[in-house]
Design goal:
Bound molecules: adenosine-5'-triphosphate, magnesium ion
Distance between the termini: 145 Å
Strand content: 15-25%
Strand order of the largest sheet: 2-1-3-4-5
Number of strands: 15
Shape: rod-shaped
Number of helices: 14
Structural class: alpha/beta
Length: 536
Amino acid sequence: MGADGKVNILMVDDQPAKLLSYEVMLAELGENLIKATSAKEALEILLKTDVAVVLMDVSMPELDGFELATMIRQHPRFQRTAIIFISAVHLTDLDRLKGYEHGAVDYISVPVVQELLRAKVRVFAELHRKTRQLQALNRDLERRVLDRTEELAAKAEMLFKLNVELVGKNQELDAIVHTAPDIIFSRQPDGARDYISDRFYEYTGAAAGSAVGFGWWDYLHPDDQARSRQRWLDCVQSGENYEAEYRLRGKDGNYRWFRARAVPIKDHRGKVIKWYGTCSDIHDSKLLEQSIRDNNVELEKMVDRRTDELRRLSVRLMSAQDQERRRIARDLHDGLGQELAVAKMILDKILLQDSSQPQEACAQASGIIDRAIQQVRTMSHLLHPPLLDEVGLLSALAWYTEGITKRSGIETLLDVQPPDFPRLAPEVETAVFRIVQEALTNVFRHSEARKVWITLRQENGLIVVSVLDDGKGIDERVADLRPDKVGVGIGGMKQRAREFGGELRLRNAAPGTLLELMIPSNSILRESNTVLNGVT
Ligand SMILES: Nc1ncnc2c1ncn2[C@@H]1O[C@H](COP(=O)(O)OP(=O)(O)OP(=O)(O)O)[C@@H](O)[C@H]1O
Ligand SMILES: [Mg+2]
């Protein structure tokens, strides 16, 4: 078939005149008419040209129509080529049958009816054209199918690769979800959970899959349910990030604190399509936080109490200082003042030469002044024992306890362990001396004791001072160091002990009272320690 859509019609006859008549008859069809005067020429044309219909005479000299038809049919390209025989003879049915056997599709007898020939040729020409068109369409279709198949194969390969990648990513995600210490979950836009990781089931002991939807709410602490539900429903409505702390019941029945967080995933119109979140165990840090808060409150209360105690102590100290001043003034007035007044009177009398025995009066005045000097010395020693600075705590204590025995008649026994007791920092020695001084004053004033044991020990990194009497014992409330029960004396001792990181204890020793002072020795020893000659 040519580009113009015309098909080729090959006319074969040994008589050119007949060929011409056929040409005239078929001209009206508007197809390409090709003429061949022999079977050989016809075969040559057939091999070079796409022929739609072969119109041939049956009887030709060298190769007749039947033989030519047989040859044409043997060629695979021409098996479907329409062959129409024209014959003036052989018109029996048998002849026609023979013609068909040799590949004819039709048979026309002479005289040829013009219209009939045209009609038959037109049908076969049209059939050929349609066949060719169909073939072209088929080829096009096949090409398109092939293209599409290739395209699909490429897409399938891409999908396969994506799938492999996705499987890999899914495995990674699975590993993360399963090894994460947190509970991981996802929720539908309406807020119902559609996935919750194994960690939740491990912790709660819930049956697998039972926590999807709103089933997980059953594991919330009753006190936290309403609040966290409401917060969640608010977030679902507003599309805001969700955060809440609540207690979840574990499989042992105990509750632990968790912090849940969830973020919404939105589509291009801002509509929530999914929620993803985690739930972390914050129980320990929550408890720690709570205990720090409690401790802070407790600490603040303690500071308040201490401040109160100090305020009271300072008030009492001031009044004690006042009393002490009054006592000193009284001692000066009644003791020293009186003695000096008498001495002055005697001396004045001698000066006025009024004395009958001036020498005796002088001796009397000198005796009175001696007593006054003694009083001054005792008073100044009590106010600040000079021995403490010079020879140390042990000698000062020995001197002081001796004085107590002399003044009160209470027997004192001082014991020091080890005998080469180290020198302590000056402020510590003063503090220990003052504490013993106050303890012994208390024994004298309150205990009715006859004997008191004072011991000084260094053991297990501590300096331990104890004062034990055999008196009537101490009120339990004072022994408990209740701030409203102790006076300035014990309050001051406690304060001094604390200043050096130490502790003061009081208890009934049945009989008597035991006072103990303990101070860690690491920071209170004198730098270049000189060993004292033991005082026993
Ligand atoms: N060795 C003791 N035996 C019995 N009671 C004691 C002894 N030491 C102290 N007390 C009791 O403890 C109370 C408190 O003593 P604290 O030294 O604090 O105050 P105070 O001696 O009464 O007055 P001050 O403030 O002048 O010392 C005393 O009033 C006394 O009742
Ligand atoms: Mg006292």
